[in-house]
Protein backbone atom coordinates (compact mmCIF):
# COMPACT_ATOMS: atom_id res chain seq x y z
CA UNK A 1 0.00 0.00 0.00
CA UNK A 2 1.31 3.43 -0.91
CA UNK A 3 2.37 5.71 1.93
CA UNK A 4 -0.38 8.22 1.20
CA UNK A 5 -3.07 5.60 1.95
CA UNK A 6 -1.63 4.00 5.09
CA UNK A 7 -2.90 6.12 7.98
CA UNK A 8 -6.63 5.89 7.31
CA UNK A 9 -8.84 4.26 9.93
CA UNK A 10 -10.88 2.62 7.18
CA UNK A 11 -7.89 0.90 5.59
CA UNK A 12 -9.67 -2.48 5.47
CA UNK A 13 -12.45 -0.88 3.45
CA UNK A 14 -9.87 0.58 1.05
CA UNK A 15 -8.29 -2.81 0.46
CA UNK A 16 -11.61 -4.62 0.04
CA UNK A 17 -12.86 -1.97 -2.42
CA UNK A 18 -9.64 -2.29 -4.41
CA UNK A 19 -9.95 -6.07 -4.62
CA UNK A 20 -13.63 -5.87 -5.50
CA UNK A 21 -12.98 -3.41 -8.34
CA UNK A 22 -10.12 -5.51 -9.67
CA UNK A 23 -12.42 -8.53 -9.84
CA UNK A 24 -15.21 -6.51 -11.44
CA UNK A 25 -13.05 -4.99 -14.17
CA UNK A 26 -10.49 -7.73 -14.82
CA UNK A 27 -12.34 -8.80 -17.95
CA UNK A 28 -11.90 -5.31 -19.47
CA UNK A 29 -8.12 -5.65 -19.71
CA UNK A 30 -7.07 -6.03 -23.34
CA UNK A 31 -3.61 -7.61 -23.76
CA UNK A 32 -3.55 -6.50 -27.40
CA UNK A 33 -3.60 -2.83 -26.38
CA UNK A 34 -1.21 -3.09 -23.45
CA UNK A 35 1.27 -5.62 -22.21
CA UNK A 36 1.30 -4.24 -18.67
CA UNK A 37 -1.60 -5.60 -16.60
CA UNK A 38 0.09 -4.39 -13.40
CA UNK A 39 -0.40 -0.75 -14.43
CA UNK A 40 -4.03 -1.45 -15.34
CA UNK A 41 -4.83 -2.95 -11.96
CA UNK A 42 -2.83 -0.30 -10.13
CA UNK A 43 -5.01 2.40 -11.69
CA UNK A 44 -8.18 0.51 -10.78
CA UNK A 45 -7.06 0.19 -7.16
CA UNK A 46 -5.93 3.81 -6.94
CA UNK A 47 -9.27 5.09 -8.23
CA UNK A 48 -11.19 2.84 -5.84
CA UNK A 49 -9.13 4.21 -2.93
CA UNK A 50 -9.91 7.79 -3.95
CA UNK A 51 -13.63 7.00 -4.25
CA UNK A 52 -13.65 5.38 -0.78
CA UNK A 53 -11.85 8.35 0.79
CA UNK A 54 -14.38 10.79 -0.69
CA UNK A 55 -17.24 8.60 0.52
CA UNK A 56 -15.80 8.32 4.04
CA UNK A 57 -15.24 12.08 4.25
CA UNK A 58 -18.87 12.68 3.36
CA UNK A 59 -20.00 10.18 5.99
CA UNK A 60 -17.73 11.77 8.61
CA UNK A 61 -19.15 15.16 7.78
CA UNK A 62 -22.70 13.88 8.22
CA UNK A 63 -21.78 12.40 11.61
CA UNK A 64 -20.22 15.63 12.79
CA UNK A 65 -23.20 17.68 11.62
CA UNK A 66 -25.49 15.32 13.50
CA UNK A 67 -23.50 15.73 16.72
CA UNK A 68 -23.34 19.48 16.28
CA UNK A 69 -27.04 19.90 15.55
CA UNK A 70 -28.27 17.40 18.14
CA UNK A 71 -27.36 19.71 21.00
CA UNK A 72 -25.23 17.17 22.84
CA UNK A 73 -22.51 19.74 23.37
CA UNK A 74 -24.97 22.20 24.89
CA UNK A 75 -26.09 19.66 27.49
CA UNK A 76 -22.62 19.23 28.96
CA UNK A 77 -22.10 21.06 32.23
CA UNK A 78 -19.69 23.90 31.41
CA UNK A 79 -18.95 24.44 35.11
CA UNK A 80 -16.94 21.25 35.39
CA UNK A 81 -13.28 21.58 34.36
CA UNK A 82 -13.32 18.24 32.52
CA UNK A 83 -16.44 19.16 30.56
CA UNK A 84 -14.89 22.48 29.53
CA UNK A 85 -11.99 20.59 28.00
CA UNK A 86 -14.24 18.03 26.31
CA UNK A 87 -16.51 20.73 24.92
CA UNK A 88 -13.57 22.73 23.61
CA UNK A 89 -12.07 19.65 21.94
CA UNK A 90 -15.38 18.77 20.28
CA UNK A 91 -16.01 22.29 19.05
CA UNK A 92 -12.48 22.55 17.64
CA UNK A 93 -12.86 19.17 15.98
CA UNK A 94 -16.20 20.11 14.44
CA UNK A 95 -14.81 23.40 13.17
CA UNK A 96 -11.93 21.57 11.51
CA UNK A 97 -14.51 19.69 9.44
CA UNK A 98 -16.49 22.76 8.40
CA UNK A 99 -14.59 22.89 5.13
CA UNK A 100 -16.74 19.98 3.95
CA UNK A 101 -19.95 21.70 5.03
CA UNK A 102 -20.38 24.05 2.09
CA UNK A 103 -20.43 21.38 -0.59
CA UNK A 104 -18.28 18.35 0.14
CA UNK A 105 -18.53 16.82 -3.32
CA UNK A 106 -18.07 19.96 -5.40
CA UNK A 107 -14.66 20.21 -7.03
CA UNK A 108 -12.76 23.44 -6.95
CA UNK A 109 -12.57 25.15 -10.31
CA UNK A 110 -9.24 26.41 -11.53
CA UNK A 111 -9.31 30.08 -12.43
CA UNK A 112 -9.00 30.72 -16.13
CA UNK A 113 -5.98 32.79 -17.12
CA UNK A 114 -6.81 36.39 -17.92
CA UNK A 115 -5.17 38.47 -20.58
CA UNK A 116 -4.11 40.89 -17.86
CA UNK A 117 -1.70 38.28 -16.53
CA UNK A 118 0.13 38.23 -19.84
CA UNK A 119 0.46 41.99 -20.16
CA UNK A 120 1.74 42.80 -16.68
Short description:
62% of the residues lie in helices and 0% in strands. The chain is mainly α and 120 residues long.
Number of helices: 5
Structural class: mainly alpha
Q: Provide the succession of SSEs.
A: HHHHH
**Regions with pLDDT < 50 over 5+ consecutive residues?**
none
**Describe the biggest sheet?**
none
Mean pLDDT: 79
Task: Let me know the number of strands.
Answer: 0
Number of domains: 1
Percentage of residues in strands: under 5%
Notes on the structure:
The structure is a single chain. By secondary structure, this protein is mostly helical. The chain has one domain. The protein is flat and about 70 Å long. The chain starts with 10 loop residues before the first helix and ends with a helix. The model has no long low-confidence stretch (mean pLDDT 79).
Reconstruct the topology from this structure.
Layout: H1 11-25, H2 37-70, H3 72-75, H4 81-96, H5 115-119
Please name the defining characteristics of this protein.
mainly alpha, 62% helix, 5 helices
Amino acid sequence: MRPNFINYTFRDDLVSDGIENCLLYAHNFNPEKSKNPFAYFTQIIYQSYVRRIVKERKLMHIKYLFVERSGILDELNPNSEDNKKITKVWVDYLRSHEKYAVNPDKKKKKPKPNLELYFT
